[in-house]
Write a structure and sequence with these properties.
By secondary structure, this protein is mainly β. The chain is built from no helices and eleven strands. Strands 2, 4, 5, 6, 9, 10 and 11 form a seven-stranded mixed sheet that branches. A four-stranded antiparallel sheet has the order 1-3-8-7, with no helix packed on it.
């Protein structure tokens, strides 16, 4: 059974940093796209960042502040969140594509990802 388990969320102040982690089990995703999405109260889930091989992609709203990384040996995905803003408040979800990356296609589409974690909440106070 494939599981993605996020951790590292919490309550922080504006300007603080956090590091989210996602531990995958049940299979490996070393040749697959993995990403982070977030959902704020009353809003739709949105793309934050993705990584496949050595390539990364970021939403404009987090570019320069967030960094995605992965450890294929430990089968984990990370997201470093710097210079947090109140508008970053959301539940953050880890996601993985069940198919090996073909080299084409977009990384920010929710429909690409077959596996999802339960989410970890990030709250940024002003």
């Amino acid at each position: 059974q494939v599981q993605l388990v996020e951790s590292g969320g919490g309550l922080v102040q504006a300007g603080d940093s956090l590091r989210l982690s996602c531990a995958a089990s049940g299979r490996t995703f070393s040749n697959n796209a993995m990403g982070w999405f977030r959902q704020a109260p009353g809003k739709e889930r949105e793309f934050v960042a993705a990584i496949v091989w050595s390539a990364t992609a970021y939403a404009e709203s987090v570019k320069g502040r967030f960094t995605i990384s992965r450890d294929n040996v430990k089968n984990t995905l990370h997201l470093r969140l710097n210079s947090l803003k109140p508008e970053d408040t959301a539940v953050y979800y880890c996601a993985a594509d069940g198919n090996p990356f073909s080299g084409s296609g977009t990384l920010w589409q929710l429909s690409r990802y077959n596996y999802w974690g339960q989410g970890t909440r990030v709250t940024v106070s002003s």
